[in-house]
Fold this protein.
Amino acid sequence: MLRLDVNLFDYTILAIYFALVVGIGVMARRAIATSEDFLLSGRSLPAWVTGLAFISANLGAIEILGMAANGAQYGMATLHFYWIGAVPAMVFLGIVMMPFYYGSRVRTVPEFLLRRFNPATHLFNALSFAAAAVLTAGVNLYALALVVNALIGWPIWVSIMVSAFFVLAYITLGGLSGAIYNEVLQFFVIIAGLIPLVVIGLHNVGGYGGLKDRVSQTELGPEAFSTWGGTNVGNWTNPLGDWIGIVMGLGFVLSFGYWTTNFAEVQRALSAKDLSAARRTPLIGSFPKIFIPALTILPGLIALVLIPNLGQEGSDYTYNDAIPLLMNRFLPNGALGIALAGLLAAFMAGMAANVSSFNTVFTYDIWQTYVVKGRRDTYYLQVGRIVTILGILVGIGTAFIASGYSNIMNYIQLLFSYFNAPLFATFIIAMFWKRTTPWAGFWGLVAGTAGAGVMHFAGYNIAYFYPGGVYDPTHSTINAQMLNFYGAITAFVADAVVTVAVTLVTRPKPVAELAGLVWGVHDPNAPDPDAVPKPVWWASPKLLATASLGIVLVLSIIFL
């Protein structure tokens, strides 16, 4: 069993970190007077805070353990999750979609669907998002429990319970503000913990050149450092599959579905102080996203060549163990404490993002809208606190589901194909086609979700998803990521086809009811963009977007 060699110095660093975490929650509590303060930070935060929180909310177990696991299992092809599978969608959110979200003054993404479609569509999305949020929270909680288990040897179930307590403490105390300010702190702690690991690891394997030579001798081979090699349709050898799955499944459907409709991310931008700050939130977050692969993928590859049989059948260690194993191997006491704090920060940030978005959607979109209507705001503030506890408790249960996956990124992409892919199809059609009808939104979401399920289960019996096209009855060799990409494509197409078909036979909303919700239909009550203070020229959203995409293009060519 993996057991980290920590001492009193490391425990002291962790104690200081946890004291800061809870202290931030206590201080944030003083600013909470309404449910909007608790659930949306009173829409008062500056862009640099929301921007760092935006990316930190994504730096959970999915990013740290999941992408390191992908690096070890798939090599540099994992870069696709960042440069094609994240940054373009983050730019699209900032430039195109945030004016709709922020300008309409909706409090949640499901509330946008209520105004654009009907209660049935709204409730379906609210329930599906709530399910996705607690399932994803369980992933982060399970990963956090793994570290606690490695740290002091507690059983996983005890580690899960203790880990949940700390997240519960600062969210219940400080609400979204407590979560966001902790996410800013956690961002810097994560970076401080991972940089020494990468530097020492690369030095140990002979630098980047030495890493390439040694990885070439593993099962991944020299192709591990090619991002687009082997993506031919019908004859793929790339670990992520063919280019259709990568470009359309990951780069378009999953990426845009996650970054533009996932309320756990959008909520950070909605807490910004004005429209300009809201638009810059994902754009600011895109810059660290570009370079985070150096802190996630590289450790995975380093672990692959230094840890015998990592991730192989019969091994004591899964791909998810890559970073903890390197920490134990390379970092001296003190540095190990900082790195552990970084890991714990990442997992708490990821879980807090999902729990804080869950309590907002449940309070506003389910409880206030359909269960108990018309009560005073203080009542819904109290409901928000209670639902936070409920979200943590359900997350504890879903953590045990995540424990059944050796690569948690495969599990996460599966969830996204069910919950985010159909939603993006509904959004993108309805936002640019005002003829889209209320019931088209509902049946499109139902069809898309069903399509993802059909593809997921049918794909295990399709030889194309196995290396070399050779069907494996045990399913152990199936390319799970590729199947998830095609599942997302299927969900998107099913949703789009049904949305269009139902639109053609049902009655649309009057154009007057679509003000501010559809491209080209102006809302006269929306905030005047000209009245919002303009940022300095170097903080212009268009300039930030151009710079971000330009850097991605250059790096993509270098690592072709």
Notes: The two ends are 38 Å apart (CA to CA).
